[in-house]
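Regression test case RT-17, inverse folding.

Input:
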């Protein structure tokens, strides 16, 4: 019989994650995720638990049914990602560079969802735009995602790690612990939350899992916090067709106020998936199997790529942002065709950090932040609520490729088309939007806007 985990509850669930939330039928046959070995050089005391076994409720579902679940979750995650990004722009402003990892936030909230009950769980499900599915089936789909995304093409690295940091002497419910281990492959550690070095230990784990790109997520631990749920994801991908640094030159980039600054624009001519309308130009730049190392005819179809969306000069920035919806995104995916042309794209680096309490409340999760109404009884017997959700991201785009990472912290506390007929020309010399996504799973790894590279 699995021992109950004993600690004292004050939960701050951190989810560092460039991880992904959705999968489609193509991953229905993926193997289940194997438990990862700890990669931290200095690990905290491990929490005891018995070997994890699948319960009857989490047994294998028929492949056809799982395929449908994957597809439904894929559509839900895309909707959630664009809805959340719109709320972030509304809350944080849209005139500065913004970077969000919808999959990171979704993964963090999905782990939190497993600890919620009744109306609180329903509200989280509604916020995530989840279809009406059994939680065990959703967890099984997430397990597939974890396995699938860590198997990208050559020249692409996706590393995912999950952990729970629990206050000593708090008792977590065995069912919650099992779902964290089985579906999210989470490491679990009991910690002294009063110790001065505990934030440093947690931050060191986050930094290591993100290759130092997210150096910290915890400044201090509030006395009311009881649990840190951490999901860390790191992405590093070489362009399939690298930009030649010798072709990079300083060019004028027009800011939102109409003034211009010189910025290095990378450039190349090649065949890319591309389309344009009277409202925007769009290009998909694939990662993996770089042409410097492989014959183009031998390279597999890329799974992960960056889509760059450049508004037409006739649109205002605000008008363009209203186009960034899940419905339009799904439509755009059907309009790409392989075409010869030239792309000029600025090098850029973004580090962003933002609270997500207000955006998530606006999307339907207000009850989870309500001390009197929140119900996390599937987590423990203590009365708890979400106190704070923080999100931190990093991306660096160069001639070689892209390096990116993200973290989402959920703090739970005790309560008191038309194709051009000639080669296209796409010069990204004004504010634009971009997304890094896995085309085979529809996963939105990152979604952002660049107003000043």
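Golden output:
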């Amino acid at each position: 019989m699995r021992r109950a985990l004993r600690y004292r509850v004050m939960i701050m669930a951190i989810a560092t994650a460039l991880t992904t939330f959705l999968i489609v039928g193509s991953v229905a046959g993926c193997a289940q995720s194997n438990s990862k070995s700890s990669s931290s050089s200095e690990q905290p005391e491990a929490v005891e638990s018995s070997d994890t076994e699948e319960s009857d409720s989490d047994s294998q579902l028929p492949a056809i049914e799982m395929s449908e679940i994957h597809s439904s979750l894929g559509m839900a995650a895309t909707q959630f990602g664009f809805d959340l990004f719109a709320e972030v722009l509304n809350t944080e402003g849209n005139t500065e560079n913004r970077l969000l990892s919808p999959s990171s936030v979704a993964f963090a909230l999905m782990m939190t969802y497993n600890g919620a009950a009744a109306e609180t769980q329903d509200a989280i499900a509604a916020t995530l735009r989840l279809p009406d599915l059994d939680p065990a089936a959703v967890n099984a789909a997430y397990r597939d995602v974890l396995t699938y995304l860590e198997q990208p093409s050559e020249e692409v690295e996706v590393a995912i790690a999950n952990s729970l940091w629990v206050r000593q002497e708090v008792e977590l419910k065995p069912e919650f612990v099992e779902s964290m281990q089985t579906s999210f492959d989470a490491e679990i550690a009991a910690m002294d939350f009063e110790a001065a070095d505990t934030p440093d230990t947690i931050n060191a784990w986050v930094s290591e899992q993100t290759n130092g790109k997210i150096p910290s997520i915890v400044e201090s631990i509030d006395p009311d916090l009881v649990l840190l749920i951490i999901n860390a994801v790191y992405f590093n991908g070489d362009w399939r067709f690298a930009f030649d640094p010798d072709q990079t030159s300083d060019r004028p980039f027009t800011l939102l106020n109409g003034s211009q600054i010189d910025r290095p624009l990378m450039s190349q001519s090649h065949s890319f998936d591309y389309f344009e309308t009277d409202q925007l130009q769009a290009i998909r730049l694939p990662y993996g199997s770089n042409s410097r190392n492989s014959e183009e005819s031998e390279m597999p179809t890329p799974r992960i790529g960056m889509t760059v969306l450049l508004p037409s000069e006739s649109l205002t920035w605000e008008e363009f942002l209203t186009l960034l919806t899940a419905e339009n995104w799904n439509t755009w995916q059907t309009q790409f065709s392989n075409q010869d042309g030239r792309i000029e794209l600025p090098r850029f680096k973004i580090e962003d950090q933002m609270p997500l309490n207000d955006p998530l409340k606006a999307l339907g999760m207000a009850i989870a932040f309500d001390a009197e109404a929140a119900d996390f009884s599937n987590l423990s017997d203590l009365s708890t609520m979400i106190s704070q959700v923080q999100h931190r991201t990093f991306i660096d785009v160069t001639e070689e490729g892209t390096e990116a990472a993200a973290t989402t912290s959920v703090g739970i506390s005790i309560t008191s088309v038309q194709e051009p007929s000639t080669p296209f020309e796409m010069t990204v010399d004004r504010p634009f939007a971009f997304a890094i996504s896995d085309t085979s799973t529809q996963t939105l790894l990152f979604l952002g806007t660049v107003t000043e590279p």
